[in-house]
Specification:
2 copies of one chain form a homodimer. The first copy, chain A, is mainly alpha-helical and 449 residues long. The first copy, chain A, is built from 22 helices and 6 strands.
């Protein structure tokens, strides 16, 4: 990618030396994504000038790759006529993405400049629920009537294919526009001219409906290695397609959501740097509050067993290390289970197998940690053997219990219809904290009092 | 997908009633992924029988979708001749995936049954480093000589295209097999017969080299919305292509790795249920040990300030709730920053902006948590106002400090060349534990002693 940096430098030099004609030629040679990236390097006052150097096609495509701030900046500065050109050329799914990030007054201006049918369509798309198939599909697909010959199909493809987002899977419909089959372009070009599309198509079609959730759709793409997937309405009529490039964004988005849930955050689709302090606070405070109040249980356990701490003062020093180790052990287990369930590798029916595995792992880890802790206290800390044993045995037991809890809670959450991702580090830690302290004080009572 | 379950039931019924001919017809109609899934429903003793009902093409393709246990079961049971058919038909990247999961003795048997040139190729692929472009590429691509006409190119495509993994991007090379350009199939079918490929191709080609890391390659796919990407050797010669379906697996794999690192686990590519207790323990114990030993710092802080706890006994009850809230606050911040950096949304240069944001979020969250904590202690707990103030003020301060640490450490880790993902929940919690206790005891000294 270093070549690209060099190229950008050359383009900037052309711009600074006012060699606009050369800049225009070079710029229009670039890939749309690289064109969009180039704008990030430009000072604000030059962006409009450079944008106007792009040809009509390039302008629309580069525009769809730009981030929302830059899109807004450009829309604010260009004429109604230029807006019309962009909206005309852009694929419908990109237009909808772009509009959903734009302030309302600019959305109105853009819609005013789209022609009647496009405007209707955009409004319809904006009404699909977030994360539904409808919200990520595109309508620029190739469809053939089932009775066409290959020759006619190819003619139609040559005539209309340029404007389609993908032509590599073509869709076959009947007179009622009901989806009947799929014909990959590779089948079409390998077929004889006079064959009938109906006889060549794959008629066991996997399709989704406009309201299906994008996460399930991503699973279908991953399972079947598709590059596009048809979307049908309630009557089975073909209304759009979803392409694999949008699915890669979905996969990232769904993973981000899991990362957020697992860190006790309300999920958000906005970029961190573009999210206000107020929104960030709002996404965090609920779980912090819930966890703090649950933490009260630990506090009351400590209060109740205060007499143990009072009689053996040294014990208080090891509370944090025990709850910490327990929390970490539990988080490790819960993370693996949550991830395994998200990838479909672990099912509810595996719960006994998982629990038995975790107990054994817990015994191994617990024994090692307990032993090292014992050695450390023996050598470095000035505590009695009985205190040392209390702490080290607690350590071993806590690890086993934490592993068991860490693997069980996510599966229980799922069984109860919750997202297992909430049963990750923070909640597991809070639960394990309380249980660790109970174990600690009871072992102490047994060995020391 | 309920239709599929019904279909599977029908197939099982055909099998149980020994209506093998019908089963064969129905089964071969299915999508390869669905065929592979069907085997999961079969008792072991029926698998071989059903596998032999698949046509040669279907057998190889369904085989490449099966999970490694099933592949192993089948390879063990079939004849050398059948193995040869599968290896012949399978794409090279799928063959390599499959071999890398197989026990050594079976790998030898498979290689013995591949022809000389295929065997050489497989060995070469098995030597590419894990996670490199070489290890995920395929060699079944379409290449044209730069001087060909469109007509000849289309003829060649029709003659050889059937066996290629994708024909939708064709690659143009010179006489030395150096990659000169890309010509999408859509360009080709829209072009006139007598045009020269060289004049139609896109000559600014983005390519990767065999040793490039798969994570960077996934970024390129996401940025440019590619469906395939060429791989070249040191001399710029085209040696393979990577297709988008493999990239979706890479994205999942890289995300899993981040989840694991962020939960203080050594990353592993194996499925949880297939990983031995010993390996699971090995992947966990290192970090647990490191974190436990770091936890010693907390223990010695508590020892050092033991006199504070002794003089105001009630303080010990709130240690866990304070370190817990601190840990959760810090983990939230670090997760957002780590994820933002992984998605390229946050750069090193944003550190001051990020820190300032987190401090403000910390002040808002800290103030609310401190206030609620104050009210709770005031109403429910039997503690003096001074103790209440000590705990509540500490709570507020700890949240601010934890947010600041949580956002700074991942960025520092990156600056120092480490993966920021290690600076997640567990490590942040351990650091914040120690600092929270220091703050707690010093505020206590100030207000209570």
């Amino acid at each position: 990618m270093d070549d690209l940096d060099k190229l950008y430098d050359q383009l900037l030099e052309l711009l600074n030396n006012n060699r606009i004609k050369e800049l225009k030629d070079e710029l229009n040679e670039l890939n749309s994504f690289d064109q969009a990236e180039f704008f990030e390097l430009l000072p604000d006052e030059k962006k409009l000038l450079v944008f106007r150097l792009l040809t009509k096609d390039n302008a629309a495509e580069a525009f769809s790759y730009m981030d929302s701030d830059l899109q807004e900046h450009i829309i604010k500065s260009i004429s109604d006529n230029e807006i019309r050109n962009i909206v005309d050329e852009m694929y419908i799914d990109d237009t909808v993405d772009f509009l959903s990030e734009l302030p309302a007054n600019l959305v109105t201006r853009v819609l005013k400049n789209a022609d009647e049918s496009k405007r209707k369509l955009i409004n319809q798309f904006l009404n699909y629920p977030d994360n539904s198939a409808g919200s990520i599909m595109t309508i620029e697909f190739v469809q053939f009537h089932e009775d066409m010959t290959v020759k006619r199909a190819m003619e139609q493809l040559r005539a209309t294919g340029v404007d389609k987002e993908t032509i590599y899977n073509c869709y076959v419909v009947n007179s009622k526009r009901v989806l009947m089959g799929i014909i990959p372009l590779r089948t079409l070009i390998l077929a004889k001219d006079d064959e009938i599309v109906k006889n060549l198509m794959e008629d066991r079609v996997i399709s989704v409906s406009t309201l299906d959730d994008q996460e399930e759709i991503a699973e279908i793409f991953k399972d079947y290695n598709f590059i596009s997937l048809p979307v049908v309405d309630k009557e089975g009529r073909l209304v759009g397609i979803i392409t694999v490039d949008d699915i890669m964004d979905v996969i990232d988005q769904e993973n981000t959501e899991d990362f957020e849930k697992m860190a006790a955050l309300l999920p958000s689709e906005d970029e961190y740097l573009k999210t206000s302090v107020f929104t960030l606070t709002k996404n965090r405070i609920l779980w912090l509050m819930v966890l703090m109040i649950s933490g009260t249980i630990s506090a009351s356990i400590i209060s109740k067993y205060q007499y143990v701490l009072t009689s053996v003062l040294a014990l208080s020093a090891y509370m944090t290390i025990l709850t910490g180790t327990g929390g970490n052990s539990g988080s490790q287990a819960s993370t693996l289970i949550i991830r395994g369930m998200a990838l479909g590798e672990i099912e509810m029916r595996d719960i006994i197998k998982v629990l038995w595995k975790e107990v054994r792992v817990g015994i191994l880890c617990g024994a090692m940690l307990g032993f090292v802790n014992f050695a450390r206290l023996f050598i470095f800390d000035d505590v009695s053997l009985a205190v040392n044993l209390t702490v080290s045995i607690t350590m071993a037991v806590v690890v086993v219990v934490a592993k068991a809890i860490g693997c069980t809670l996510p599966m229980l959450a799922k069984r109860l219809g919750f997202d297992p991702a909430i049963m990750a580090g923070p909640l597991i830690t809070t639960v394990v904290d309380a249980i660790s302290l109970l174990i600690y004080f009871n072992i102490a009572r047994l060995l020391l009092l």
